């Protein structure tokens, strides 16, 4: 019985076994058809939540974790489809070693991040780093491949240095 692979699956397998081919930064089929939720957010609300998100990041950078986390949570209450806040809150969770929570947030960042290449590259790469830390090598590699396709330099480096690809 023959199984048909999607173009995306073929591309991932090609990158695993041929890491030196380089990466064309392209939007994969799955994410190109996803909704860009950020475009659907009222402009005034979007401006405010982006401002609040920057404040939260500053609090986190200054080790004022509870203040930063509270702002992230309020943003999510205001607009649960704003992908960037999930990516940033996942970074906080990763910093405090709450990896399960970080993975959940990264899944949401990817789900709501359709059409946002930079965000998707960062979310896939961060999720790959967590999976690598959790010894999920295949899951990490697949996420790094996705991150690289969205242009993330760290993901490209991880794929290039993948020991499985050198076999």
UniProtKB/TrEMBL annotation:
Gene3D superfamilies per record: Tetratricopeptide repeat domain
Record-linked InterPro entries: TPR-like_helical_dom_sf (IPR011990), TTC36 (IPR038906)
Gene Ontology biological-process annotations: tyrosine metabolic process
Residues annotated as signal peptide: none
SUPFAM superfamilies tied to this protein: TPR-like
Highest rank taxon of the organism: Eukaryota
Family in the record: Belongs to the TTC36 family.
Protein name: Tetratricopeptide repeat protein 36
Organism of origin: Clydaea vesicula
Organism phylogeny: Eukaryota, Fungi, Fungi incertae sedis, Chytridiomycota, Chytridiomycota incertae sedis
């Amino acid at each position: 019985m023959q199984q048909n692979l999607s173009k995306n699956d073929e591309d991932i397998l090609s990158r695993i076994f041929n890491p030196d081919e380089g990466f064309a930064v392209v939007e994969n089929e799955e994410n190109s058809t996803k909704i860009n939720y950020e475009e659907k957010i009222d402009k005034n609300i979007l401006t405010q939540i982006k401002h609040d998100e920057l404040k939260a990041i500053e609090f986190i950078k200054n080790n004022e974790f509870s203040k930063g986390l509270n702002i992230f949570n309020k943003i999510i209450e205001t607009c649960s489809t704003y992908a960037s806040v999930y990516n940033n809150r996942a970074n906080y969770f990763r910093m405090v070693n709450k990896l399960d929570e970080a993975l959940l947030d990264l899944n949401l960042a990817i789900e709501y991040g359709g059409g946002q290449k930079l965000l998707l590259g960062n979310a896939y790469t961060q999720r790959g780093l967590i999976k690598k830390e959790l010894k999920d090598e295949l899951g990490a590699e697949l996420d790094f491949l996705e991150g690289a396709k969205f242009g993330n330099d760290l993901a490209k480096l991880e794929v290039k240095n993948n020991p499985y690809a050198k076999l």
